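User: Please work through this fold.
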Amino acid sequence: MITEIKRHLLSFLLLFFGLLIALLVFFYFSYDPHYQRRVIYGTAVFYFLWSLYHHYQKGDLQFSLVVEYLLVALFAALLITGTLL
């Protein structure tokens, strides 16, 4: 995994900072669950698109990976939004 991160450092930095910004914005809107849901949905879309970009750059993008990342993003979004008031 470490060699994978070193090989695709820019891609993983983009993921890290994208998720960090999403987390900060999520807590910034702690007073309004509606905005938090929007942040969660936006983060899920970002994660899904990042995964497509990452695997396209690696040259191993397959339909099964697209479905897998889509299901993970949807499941995470539903799980997190289900905990909001």
